[in-house]
Specification:
Length: 694
């Protein structure tokens, strides 16, 4: 069909249509084309300027008010999943595609709505992604050219021959919430940085009320008497008061379960909406929920009996409440509503698998503190961690997830370069661009400096894995580390930095107290806010120990012992001597000899077993390597195996699923055996030393 014929068919379906040039309407006053003004197609569809047919939105039809859900998202995984989820909610529907993976769905809404737009999210290519609800005063191109070379296509039918789905306003809100949840899960960055940072200050403080009072105000409200907007308002207020915690979510789900209207309670939808909250520049606070509560109490005394039934539960919660934590996990309220219990499946929906950066030590989206006395080696330890993550190399027996690390070296910055060079030389790897280093640490007493830092990081890497602040003293600026208020402010801004940079982790390096070498100095707010806390402490004979002092969501890791190893760098100082630095090497206490040695890792154990099996199968051959004979004399090993043969045996024995991971693990295993003096590698030949017992 040509454009004129297409316009006539759409008009027969009761739609107001106009000619467009690209995306721009040609017809004057096209926004008024509704009701009696849409009795015929408006404008010249056969003129030279017309490239397509536009459909005017917002007018009322027999089925409802015509609107469109415009998914302006460049991330294929989000667009595809959102389209599938919408299909599960409303069944099959026609949708229009111009530039994939973006798409548009026309709908009839049972009530008129104004234009609505989701938060904007920035992807790794710097593009803005959002969902826009097109309504009255807007139009979309239904048929015609897209850009200069493409055209709009319809899937699952088309606008002329297929039924347009009829939806409620709640469905529109659900689609936006679902998109925002998916955007956050995919690591996209919300593009409202200024408002987000500024809102962490005193403007929207949480109320200083007890858990008992929160419960009482919630229970005075009846969700079954609320429309969607009021219900969502209560959710937003509770989310702000509880800082979006899983315990706040559980309380809201329990309260919402009191709504016995058919189809009203949907646990999965509640979780999706809850996850989408928290990025507003003017958040709804719990104060507005209290206002609703007080108004309701004056007219509905029937709820007083229900509150009385909660008194014992609430008193118990308040008595056990933590000083620093609101709705601590162990004190989460367990309240029965109309004899409704949550199943184990429903309750465990709050659980998500660990996303380890260093396995069994800390995850992504963690706030971490490493503390220790002055000069104990904290910078050496964090450099070791940072470069292990940046390279994706094993950290002393713990697997890592490779990612970009931002290291702000506020103390000892002059020595960072030589320490990193020593680490690379010891690990026998080249430097990587996966680490960003600065000697100018962010001043967390300045909102502007925090915002500037986030912008600078986003320009280089919008989705880092870890940010290291070395040290808290340098990052605090004018803040007092002994002040509860000041440290609360610093923690909030750390949360802002984490969430606006793709839910990365932040590690704060800190000092022990002057008279207490066992604890980090400063306000107790700091420790309460940490997901993970680690202590680096000196032992005897130059050995230091890294131990776990707090693991919020898992078991403490086994302490790791380190010693310092001097490394001669391939550069000369002013006196013509080699520049020296040091690295941390893992050691373990040998109970029999009381000496320290480098310990095994899973990769090195597999490597050693593979070598022994190859020896027993006769795959070793005699060879006196000239270099080893010259330097070691009669102590030089005289039997060896080719690295390629060893690698094949290692791969066969490894329990890893990915072939590339197996090969990398083989290399790590060999490197560890070299450090343990169990083998010598020359010319891709592996020579076991006398320490190996076959």
């Amino acid at each position: 069909m040509n454009l004129n014929e297409t316009a006539l068919e759409l008009h027969k379906k009761g739609l107001a249509v106009i000619p467009v040039d690209g995306k721009r309407p040609i017809t004057n006053n096209w926004q008024k084309l509704k009701d009696e003004n849409r009795k015929k197609p408006n404008g010249n569809f056969e003129g030279s300027r017309a490239t397509g047919v536009g459909v005017v939105l917002g007018h009322k039809t027999e089925k409802g008010y015509l609107m469109a859900i415009d998914v302006d998202c460049y991330v294929k995984e989000i667009s595809n999943e959102l389209c599938n989820q919408i299909g599960e909610m409303i069944g099959e529907f026609p949708f229009r595609v111009g530039k994939k993976p973006k798409f548009l769905i026309p709908v009839y809404c049972t009530r008129p709505m104004k234009k609505t737009v989701s938060n904007k999210y920035i992807d790794t290519n710097g593009k803005e992604n959002r969902v826009e609800i097109l309504a009255e005063g807007q139009q979309f191109v239904a048929y015609g050219k897209y850009g200069t070379t493409g055209k709009y296509n319809w899937y699952n039918g088309d606008l002329i021959n297929s039924d347009i789905p009829v939806v409620e306003p709640d469905f529109i809100h659900d689609v936006i919430s679902l998109f925002e949840y998916m955007a956050v899960q995919q690591g996209l960055v919300a593009d409202n940085l200024d408002a987000y940072v500024e809102s962490t200050r005193e403007t929207y403080d949480r109320l200083d009320i007890s858990d008992k009072e929160i419960i009482e105000h919630m229970q005075s409200l009846d969700p079954s008497k609320m429309d969607h907007d009021t219900w969502f308002h209560v959710m937003a207020g509770l989310h702000h008061q509880t800082d979006g915690s899983p315990e706040g979510l559980l309380l809201f789900k329990q309260w919402s379960a009191r709504d016995d209207r058919p189809g009203q309670y949907d646990a999965r939808l509640i979780e999706t909406k809850w996850a989408s909250l928290g990025n507003s520049d003017s958040p709804i606070t719990f104060a507005s929920v209290i206002a609703m509560s007080r108004e309701n109490l004056t007219v509905d005394q029937l709820l007083a009996n229900f509150i009385a039934e909660l008194e014992d539960v609430a008193d118990t919660i308040e008595a056990n409440a933590k000083t620093e934590d609101t709705f601590a996990v162990e004190d989460a309220p367990v309240v029965e509503y109309k004899d409704r219990f949550f199943t184990g499946t429903e309750f465990t929906q709050l659980i998500t698998p660990a996303n380890w950066l260093i396995k069994n030590m800390f995850e992504r989206d963690n706030l971490i503190m490493m503390y220790g006395g002055s000069g104990v080696g904290k910078s050496y330890a964090v450099i070791d961690m940072a470069l292990s993550i940046a390279h994706g190399l094993e950290y002393h027996g713990h697997d890592t997830k490779q990612g970009t690390v931002v290291y702000m070296a506020g103390e000892g910055a002059r020595g960072i370069g030589s320490r990193m060079a020593a680490w690379h030389q010891e690990r026998n790897v080249y430097p990587t661009d996966n680490i960003l280093i600065t000697s100018r640490i962010t001043d967390f007493s300045s909102d502007e400096d925090v915002k500037a830092t986030i912008r600078e990081i986003r320009q280089r890497e919008p989705n880092p894995s870890l940010i290291i602040l070395d040290t808290l003293a340098r990052a605090s600026g004018a803040l007092d580390e002994n002040s509860t208020k000041d440290m609360n402010s610093l923690v909030k801004l750390c949360d802002v930095m984490r969430h606006t940079l793709g839910n990365c982790s932040i590690m704060i390096v800190h000092h022990t107290g002057k008279h207490d070498s066992q604890s980090a100095r400063g306000s107790s707010v700091l420790r309460a806010a940490m997901d993970v806390e680690m202590r680096l402490a000196p032992l005897d004979q130059g050995v230091i120990e890294l131990s776990s002092t707090k693991m919020k969501e898992s078991e403490p890791f086994t302490p790791i012992l380190f010693g310092f190893k001097t490394v001669n760098l391939p550069m000369l100082d002013a006196d013509g001597e080699n520049v020296r630095s040091a690295v941390l090497v893992e050691i373990e206490q040998d109970s029999e000899t009381n000496s320290n040695r480098v310990s095994h890792t899973p990769a090195s154990e597999t490597a050693l077993n593979a070598l022994k099996d190859l020896y027993n199968k006769g795959d070793f051959h005699a060879y006196a390597h000239p270099e080893l004979t010259q330097t070691m004399g009669l102590d030089a090993p005289s039997e060896c195996v080719e690295y390629a043969v060893f690698r094949d045996e290692f791969v066969a024995q490894s329990t890893m699923e990915n072939m590339d991971s197996k090969r990398k693990a083989a290399k790590r295993g060999v490197d560890r055996l070299v450090k343990m003096d169990l083998i010598i590698v020359r010319d891709d030949l592996l020579f076991p030393t006398k320490l190996v017992k076959f």
